[in-house]
Specification:
single chain, 188 residues, mainly alpha
Length: 188
């Protein structure tokens, strides 16, 4: 999944999902959700392959892939889950969802890693607005946003370049601007 968007390999999707299942990553709701977001973005880029991918999997791997198909919000994805009444309504726009807990940031990272979409990183940067908030949950959100941004910028120069460009955007709040500046200083 790491920086998939930079070198897409949709032919590996089924094998990767089987690997996730074998490692137990799909047995945990949060892990399965993060993977479903990632796979949903891959499916959105390749909707013509959704039915074939689903046909190759079973069990928890297929269940996760069905959620991903729904999250792709494509005609092919909706057709693939039309038999499930819980998946009839379109999924919420992830990039418009509020951040209620630190783990939610993983969903934005999954979106970014699959697509390279700057709006996903912008949502993570929005957590910098919580700096100085005394609420323990908000502190956790801020810390996770900061730590993951620094970690991934160290691993991926294009992400650092994106954040450098983002630093100049006029719509940033003072806290967001400060958070970006600190993250950039931590990743020379």
């Amino acid at each position: 999944m790491q920086f998939y968007y930079a070198d897409p390999s949709p032919d590996r999707l089924v094998d990767e999902v089987r690997g996730f299942a074998a490692q137990g990553m799909l047995a945990h709701p949060h892990g399965a959700s993060v993977i479903a977001v990632f796979l949903g973005r891959v499916m959105a880029a390749h909707p013509e392959r959704i039915a074939g991918w689903l046909a190759e999997l079973d069990g928890v791997a297929r269940d996760t892939l069905r959620i991903a198909a729904w999250m792709s919000n494509t005609a092919e994805g909706r057709a693939a889950v039309a038999d499930d009444p819980k998946l009839r309504e379109p999924p919420a726009d992830l990039l418009a969802c509020s951040i209620q807990e630190a783990q939610a940031l993983d969903l934005f990272w999954a979106y970014y890693l699959a697509t390279g979409e700057p709006r996903a990183v912008r949502r993570i940067v929005s957590a910098f607005e919580l700096v100085g908030d005394p609420d323990a949950n908000n502190v956790a959100i801020f810390q996770r946003a900061s730590q993951t941004l620094v970690l991934l910028m160290r691993q991926h120069a294009p992400l650092r370049a994106l954040v450098e460009r983002m630093a100049g955007e006029p719509d940033l709040t003072a806290n967001e601007r400060q958070g970006i500046a600190l993250a950039l200083r931590a990743t020379p």
